[in-house]
Amino acid sequence: MSHAQGQAAAPSPADEHPWRTIAHNGLWKQNPGVVQLLGLCPVLAISTTVVNGVSLGLATALVMAVSGAAVAAIRHFIPNEIRSPIFLLIIAALVTCVDLLMNAFVHPLYLTLGIFIPLITTNCIVLARAEAFASKNPVPKSALDGLMMGLGLTLVLAILGAMRELIGHGTLFSGAELVFGDAGRAMVLHVIPAEAHYQFLLASLPPGAFLALGFLIAGRNLLDEHRKRRAARASAAATPLTEAQ
């Protein structure tokens, strides 16, 4: 037996830290909002405020986590020919539960989000993760993958909502009373005094959503490039030391 055959292959970082890798993929490397560019309809339409964006994002994250776990639990019993309809049935059942719960407990927010709650069923992010990951992995990893992908989308919605709300109306957390009742009115931050009646309509319209998303994607790409250059410089600086030893 040769030395190469007898020596065990070194584990990759993904094998050593699978949970960390799943979290990093969902929140940054494969973020559905700014990398995969999936589910842009809710991203662009509902991200007018932080409250709206975070609320829909958390609802989507809950559906993705539970649907990922459910698909992973029954993946060995589903014939390949009908797996997509079965996945859609599972997702639709979960979205119906979320829809009813929001209607019962946060009715004003439910009315504001409107059709975008049922549309989680047809959101390609949810079905894509069920097909690409949950159908091939065990329950804990699939649940975490769905949760992290959903939280990655929530993060994008929160940042977009903050950008559009701040530029469009000069406020943050407007609409908090939809979730927390009258106590939520005290949470609204008026960055620009309400007496100024400030409004920049473009930020609240779909073109403003496209522009804000473009800036967000560009910012993420710049951070990635900066990190790669810093890693390359660190590697180059370490190489002479290694050769000297």
Automatic annotation (TrEMBL):
It is found in: Cell inner membrane; Endomembrane system. It is a multi-pass membrane protein. Its EC number is 7.-.-.-. Pfam families: Rnf-Nqr. It is an enzyme of class 7 (translocase). Keywords: Cell inner membrane, Cell membrane, Electron transport, Membrane, Translocase, Transmembrane, Transmembrane helix, Transport. The keyword Ribosomal protein does not apply. The chain crosses the membrane at residues 54-74, 86-105, 111-130, 142-163, 200-223. Signal peptide: none annotated. Part of a membrane-bound complex that couples electron transfer with translocation of ions across the membrane. This is Ion-translocating oxidoreductase complex subunit E. It comes from Crenobacter oryzisoli.
